[in-house]
Amino acid sequence: MIRPILVVGNPVLRQKAKRVSQIDKSIQRLIDDMIETMKAAPGVGLAAPQIGVPLRLAVIEVEDKITVIINPEIVKSTGQVELDEGCLSVPGFWGRLERAERVSVKALDRNGKEQRIRDADGLLAQALQHEIDHLDGHLYIDRLDTLDKLQRSEPLRKREADARRDSEAAEEPPAEEL
Asked: Catalytic residue numbers?
């Protein structure tokens, strides 16, 4: 079931989420709902507080692989990288911020088995940090020096149309030189 995503201003987004004490049918259903909601949004990740459930649980999809993290903890981070970042709970905007370049995370998977995600980098590292921030009651905009640095996102349809136009232009043969 697709659930509504809370937006900035909702107090649940600012609470530190509670640990999941037991992985039962209701948690499994919540995970399934979160995956469906994330895909429909569409997004790269979704934390339970974003749908009004203050539990330490998040889902991430990178390169067609879904990662479920329950009670996650960053155990190691290295390097610094500057990234563009947006959020389903801050619709219509993105900002440039610094995050760790690589992270290692320990968490439970959806079956309650301990998992370690070692030296994640790229989009997975960014998503892990972003979603764990949500579980601690933080939004990416809290990492900006000033909200003046927020950029307005173009509507998705315009971005898709621009991408299509650019790829069609790249396929056209170059004009004859005179």
From this structure: 131
What pLDDT does 147 receive? Answer: 81
On whether residue 176 sits in a domain, the answer given is no
pLDDT of residue 148: 79
Give the per-residue pLDDT at 165: 61
Rounding to the nearest 10 degrees, give the CA dihedral for residues 129, 116, 107, 136.
Answer: -20
Distances 167 to 72, 160, 162 between C-alpha atoms, Å: 40, 11, 9
Strand partners, 104: 76
Give the domain range for residue 121. Answer: 11-170
The strand pairing partners of 85, in sequence order, are: 95
Q: How far apart are CA 42 and CA 40, in angstroms?
A: 5
| Closest-CA residue to 85 (of 95, 72, 98, 99) | 95
Q: Which residues of the chain have pLDDT under 50?
A: 156-159, 172-178
- The domain total for the chain is 1
CATH number, domain of 16, equals 3.90.45.10
Angle at Cα 81 formed by Cα 49 and Cα 95, nearest 5°? 55
